[in-house]
């Protein structure tokens, strides 16, 4: 969609509707900081019926294990990223799985790679869904908003974790990811671990073993433009053998119990490491408590890297 919108934006310049591009560019310059200022969340777009059909395709479901107090703010760590982050989008950016019903008084926002907010028209559509840019300024704005009940969703593994997304994989990029911990301590926001069973089963990837030329190219692209460009495939529209459609595999997103965080304006390295270790333990406990329901072998555990 982003590339299509970019093509329309440039293509209009060569038609009699060129003024639309000029006017939008002017509006864009005035609105350029909006992704770092909470976006432009619109409930109408979050409740579009198309998201229900998208949810039913897999299907995707959201499970609550504990209450979230609307008088507090939260940082929710979402795992794993998957190839396209379908579960995180449907659960936190739409009402297709009933987020507001399960967690009344909680207003979710989801961080997304800054690159996508540089695509014309597309940036406006994703902001309407509650997506915000993935930088510290953006997170600070959400957690400092008037009133409480704000939930900042962060896919902790980020774009790099896409390369780990394949059926049966439970390898998470988390061991060295501590920025969200510092953010939680600075603002006193409770941490909520979220694990989405089935997220990695929606696509297959072309093998990219560590050290191979293909893996090196992907890492190079990741450093240059922030995207790893995985070669993935799923099913077709009329057949299930090969195509770009995701497989119809259930995705069940489990929201864990919140971890209380004491506000610390200048947290020490020891405090960050202690809370980070606690978060990993709670995430492991969440995975272990539910894995047998999804036919995951008892000897299979989360792997952190």
UniProtKB/TrEMBL annotation:
Its EC number is 2.3.1.-. Signal peptide: none annotated. Its main location: endoplasmic reticulum. The keyword ATP-binding does not apply. Keywords: Acyltransferase, Endoplasmic reticulum, Lipid biosynthesis, Lipid metabolism, Membrane, Transferase, Transmembrane, Transmembrane helix. GO terms for cellular component: perinuclear endoplasmic reticulum membrane. Pfam families: DAGAT. GO terms for biological process: diacylglycerol biosynthetic process; intestinal absorption; monoacylglycerol biosynthetic process; triglyceride biosynthetic process. The keyword Lipid metabolism applies. The chain crosses the membrane at residues 6-30. It is a multi-pass membrane protein. Belongs to the diacylglycerol acyltransferase family. This is Acyltransferase. It comes from Cavia porcellus.
């Amino acid at each position: 969609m982003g590339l299509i919108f970019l093509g329309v934006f440039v293509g209009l310049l060569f038609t009699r509707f060129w003024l639309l591009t000029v006017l939008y560019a002017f509006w864009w310059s005035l609105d350029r900081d909006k992704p770092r200022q909470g976006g432009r969340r619109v409930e109408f777009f979050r409740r579009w019926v198309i998201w229900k059909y998208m949810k039913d395709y897999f299907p995707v479901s959201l499970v609550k294990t504990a209450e979230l107090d609307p008088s507090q703010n939260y940082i929710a760590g979402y795992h794993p990223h998957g190839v396209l982050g379908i579960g995180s989008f449907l659960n936190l950016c739409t009402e297709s799985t009933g987020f507001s019903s399960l967690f009344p008084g909680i207003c979710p926002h989801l961080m997304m790679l800054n690159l996508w907010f540089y695509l014309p028209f597309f940036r406006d559509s994703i902001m309407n869904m509650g997506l915000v840019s993935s930088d510290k300024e953006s997170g600070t704005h959400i957690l400092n908003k008037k009133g409480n009940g704000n939930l900042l969703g962060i896919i902790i593994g980020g774009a790099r974790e896409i390369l780990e997304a394949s059926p049966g994989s439970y390898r998470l990029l988390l061991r060295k990811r501590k920025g969200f911990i510092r953010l939680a301590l600075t603002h006193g926001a409770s941490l909520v671990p979220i694990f989405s069973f089935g997220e990695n089963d929606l696509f297959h990837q072309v093998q990219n073993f560590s050290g191979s030329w293909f893996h090196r190219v992907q890492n190079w692209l990741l450093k240059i433009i922030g995207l790893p460009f995985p070669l993935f495939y799923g099913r077709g529209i009329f057949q299930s053998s090969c195509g770009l459609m995701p497989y119809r595999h259930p995705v069940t997103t489990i929201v864990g119990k919140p971890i209380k965080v004491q506000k610390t304006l200048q947290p020490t390295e020891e405090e960050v490491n202690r809370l980070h270790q606690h978060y990993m333990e709670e995430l492991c406990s969440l995975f272990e408590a539910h894995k047998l329901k999804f036919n995951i072998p008892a000897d299979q555990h989360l792997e952190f890297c």
